[in-house]
Amino acid sequence: MRAELEHAPKWLRAFFNKAWRDFKQNKWSYDGATFVPERYKKTLFEVAAFLHDYLNSLGIVSYQADAFMFRVMKLLKYSFKHFVYRWILTRLTFLNILRHKYYLKDWKGKFPIEIIQQ
After folding, report:
1. Would you say residue 33 lies in a domain?
2. pLDDT value at residue 4
């Protein structure tokens, strides 16, 4: 994932580093992109899915979080195929919102832009 971020904007690298620190401290877990193929065949680690899962772990589940994932994918030049797969699945974000709202009870809703400025 570090190689993916080599030419990424500073704010994205900083946000990734925050998510990575929390991951290494076992504050949340990552299991790869959900229901879609990962960007690379040899590893389940990729930046866009990693950061999207990080937001999920914080209870930030929304179409804005999905839009953030697509922005990251665009910045890192993901393939059109990956955009299509993920766009289709994000049509079901409302189910994930319901899960976080009523089952996990950790839903925070909208994406706070300040999170990427810390």
Report:
1. no
2. 81
Question: Which residue type sits at 79?
Answer: S
Q: For 41-88, how does the pLDDT look when each residue is reduced to its tens digit (9 = 90+)?
A: 665 578 888 899 999 899 998 999 999 999 999 999 988 988 888 898
- Residue-number span of the structural domain to which 60 is assigned: 10-21+44-117
Count of structural domains, the chain: 1
Q: What is the pLDDT of residue 39?
A: 54
Instruction: Tell me the pTM.
Output: 0.83
What is the C-alpha separation between 53 and 72, in angstroms, rounded? 13
Backbone CA torsion sign across 46, 8, 6, 17 = negative
Domain-located, residue 49: yes
Tell whether 54 is covered by a domain.
Answer: yes
Q: Where are the alpha helices (DSSP H) in the chain?
A: 10-24, 47-57, 63-75, 80-90, 93-98
Coil, strand or helix at 1: coil
Contact present, 92 and 99 (Cβ < 8 Å): no
- Would residue 5 count as lying in a domain? no
